[in-house]
């Protein structure tokens, strides 16, 4: 509860003092054989980060600071962070991409199937939460990459997975792809990755003209293509 209260107060202005207190809590694991306090703190930070995507850069910075400063007793803190991050990202990423029930509920509500799905039903809220956290996870993954905590290879795997269904893609896949590339584009689009990026954006151009893709997603893809043409500078820059 104390850690949750600290995370609720975390801002960029209070980052140093609050993050030091969170790390002090995590370091209570020094006296534990199984490191359960550390595992609990890691889980709380991760949950908070994917639920509040607007602050994902701040939570990624907190994660890196914790990796660097957590005590190595009784278990290697930094090592545990990396292992948890990779396992959790992979598990949540795969679950989000196959959560057909959540997708069906959102799709029905968009198609006006209110007789089957009450707009404010528990299923609808659960589906919206799953979608929000899925996009939050994608943004968090992108922020990890920008802080050099995830490799380029893992980023390519994520993009390829999201672009795997070119014929009849899910909206969630396209939105996740655009969220990821908006987050990492400037760091990811290097001369070394150029060949891969050309293939990705060629597929995205095809998708932006695909009749199976909703107009909203077509516009989102078009915005991404234009963002890259502007060398990842936003229109307002």
From TrEMBL:
Belongs to the eukaryotic initiation factor 4G family. It comes from the Eukaryota. This is Predicted protein. The keyword Transmembrane does not apply. Residues 1-231 form the MIF4G domain. SUPFAM superfamilies: ARM repeat. Its main location: cytoplasm. GO terms for cellular component: cytoplasmic stress granule; eukaryotic translation initiation factor 4F complex. It holds the Pfam family MIF4G. Keywords: Cytoplasm, Initiation factor, Phosphoprotein, Protein biosynthesis, RNA-binding. It is found in: Cytoplasm. GO terms for molecular function: mRNA binding; translation initiation factor activity.
């Amino acid at each position: 509860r104390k850690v949750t209260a600290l995370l609720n107060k975390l801002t960029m202005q209070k980052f140093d003092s609050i993050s030091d207190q969170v790390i002090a809590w995590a370091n209570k694991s020094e006296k534990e054989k199984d490191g359960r306090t550390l595992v609990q703190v890691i889980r709380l930070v991760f949950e908070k980060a994917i639920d509040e995507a607007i602050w994902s850069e701040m939570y990624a910075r907190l994660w890196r600071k914790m990796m660097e400063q957590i005590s190595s007793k009784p278990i290697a803190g930094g090592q545990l962070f990396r292992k948890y991050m990779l396992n959790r990202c992979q598990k949540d990423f795969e679950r989000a991409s196959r959560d057909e029930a959540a997708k069906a509920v959102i799709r029905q509500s968009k198609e006006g199937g209110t007789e089957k799905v009450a707009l404010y039903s528990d299923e609808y809220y659960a589906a919206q939460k799953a979608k929000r956290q899925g996009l939050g996870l994608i943004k968090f993954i992108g922020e990890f990459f920008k802080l050099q905590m995830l490799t380029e290879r893992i980023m390519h795997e994520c993009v390829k997975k999201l672009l795997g269904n070119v014929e009849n893609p899910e909206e969630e896949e396209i939105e996740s792809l655009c969220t990821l590339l908006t987050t990492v584009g400037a760091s990811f689009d290097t001369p070394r990755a150029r060949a891969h990026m050309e293939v990705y954006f060629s597929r995205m151009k095809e998708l932006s003209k695909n009749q199976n893709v909703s107009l909203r997603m077509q516009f989102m893809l078009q915005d991404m293509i234009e963002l890259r043409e502007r060398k990842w500078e936003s229109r307002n820059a």
